[in-house]
Write a structure and sequence with these properties.
370 residues; alpha/beta; 15 helices; binds 5'-deoxyadenosine
């Protein structure tokens, strides 16, 4: 499709694997403009001009895992750990209501001291006191926990598969002792329990090839995801991947670069293969490109933003990667900046919960079959 020296007049939207690979390798500005414009059009046709706002509450930075990329890893002992109280979490959730957001995302490290009952009670309170839709992002948990939380009123669950290359995943995400299931299996479990399911990847993980990234995009398609989070890998100095790089792989062109452009290409292709999904313009992209990241994401396929509602004294301690965007900003200021951005690019703040169109389609299919 892109072998001709002149840019294509149109972009095929039913992408084959070789199309995906060619687009990932494309560097000429004109064809890329066309790719982004096509993804933006598909976004408008399928999910409209509303940008859904999900208030992110990073309620605990405790973590029992040893992920090679994440600053919250257990071995990072230099870091002060915290867990917000239910009252503090409720206060943040009320901010979401005040700003007109439809939902909150409760995120933490993977911490099994955060018990099934504690989360259940929290979900019930948020449900009763705010009416917001609730997304959980608590790592790999037992099916019984996930079922109990769904029953208590949670709506959505986020668990990125990070990379579809199993060898690379196992290298950067060492398993806990004892038997453990795969994240892919957990995503299926979450679907089965009736959650809206979100997953996603990091772009430019050391050791990630273009073939891997094309597989990731094809995996989005096969997983029937409701939400897809795509952000650049950002090295954290207190992690094994924060210091190691492979100049040889990069020089050979085998390593996916962790750039904003590569992230935007991946985002645009994700929109094209999953036109109905909710796709955020991620904080990691905004961190890499503080002046333009959020806007660029929204212009190449994204329809969601997750403003951070974590209180400041905790937010600086939730350092999955350094210098997270929006870290110094007051929620109200962040809110005003977003309104300005939406005006500038002709988008409107989402109203309501912002449920996934995929979920509605799945429910309709179940009703038809019954
Ligand atoms: N760079 C970019 N993204 C990261 N995440 C964790 N650590 C990093 C990092 N160093 C992402 C992972 C995880 C999500 C919560 O944050 O994709 O699933």
């Amino acid at each position: 499709m892109l072998s001709s020296p002149s840019p294509p007049a149109t972009v095929a939207t039913a992408l084959s694997r070789s199309d995906i690979l060619q687009w990932l390798a494309e560097e000429r500005p004109e064809p890329l403009k066309l790719l982004f414009r096509t993804a933006d059009r598909i976004r408008r046709e399928h999910v409209g001009d509303q940008v859904h706002l999900r208030g992110l509450i990073e309620f605990s930075n405790r973590c029992s895992r040893s992920c090679g990329y994440c600053g919250l890893r257990v071995a990072n002992r230099g870091m002060e750990r915290y867990c917000m109280t239910p009252d503090e979490i409720l206060a943040s959730a009320r901010l979401a209501v005040q700003f007109g957001y439809g939902s909150v995302v409760l995120q933490s490290g993977e911490d099994h001291a955060i018990t099934r009952g504690w989360v259940k009670a929290l979900i019930s309170r948020i449900r009763q006191e705010t009416g917001l839709a609730i997304t959980l992002s608590l790592g790999e948990r037992h099916r019984d926990d996930l079922a109990a939380w769904k029953e208590a009123g949670a709506d959505r669950y986020l668990l990125r598969f990070e990379t579809s290359n199993e060898t690379l995943f196992n290298r950067i995400h060492p398993p806990l002792p004892g038997p453990s299931g795969s994240r892919m299996a957990l995503l299926a479990t979450l679907h089965g329990l009736g959650y809206e399911v979100g997953s996603g990847i990091m772009v430019g993980i050391p050791g990630q090839s273009f073939e891997d990234l094309a597989n990731d995009i094809e995996t989005f398609r096969t997983l029937d995801l409701d939400m897809i989070g795509i952000g650049p890998f950002l090295p954290h100095p207190a992690t094994p991947l924060g210091t190691r790089s492979s100049p040889a792989a990069a020089a050979a062109g085998a390593q996916v670069p962790n750039t904003g452009l590569m992230t935007c290409k991946t985002l645009a292709l994700a929109r094209m293969v999953c036109p109905d999904a909710n796709i955020p313009s991620t904080t990691a992209l905004a961190t890499l490109q503080p002046d333009s990241g959020r806007e660029q994401g929204l212009l190449c396929g994204a329809n969601v933003i997750m403003p951070n509602l974590t209180p400041h004294r905790y937010r600086r301690l939730y350092e999955i990667y350094p210098d997270k965007a929006c870290c110094g900003e007051e929620p109200l200021l962040c809110q005003q900046q977003l309104q300005e951005l939406f005006r500038k690019i002709g988008r409107i703040p989402g109203s309501g919960r912002g449920d996934s169109p995929n979920l509605e389609r799945r429910r309709a299919a179940v009703q038809t079959a019954a």
